[in-house]
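tool_call: predict_structure(chain=1)
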Amino acid sequence: LQAEEILVNSSEKVISGPQNMIMELKKPINHTWPTGRYELRIYVNGKENLSVPFTIIKDSAHAQGKNP
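tool_result:
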């Protein structure tokens, strides 16, 4: 099964010197994340520096209208 690549969020930052950076990944506007496997890729100077896989699963408590 071939994975489908969809660009969700993309931004460029210029950082000079040793600095920490905080990033966030937002869900698509007016939509929820579909269940499935995802991968966050971070590029530094045009080269992949970090790849973090994550999975969105169905929350049965929220899906049934229950509070955890």
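agent: Helices lie at 60-63. Proceeding to next step.
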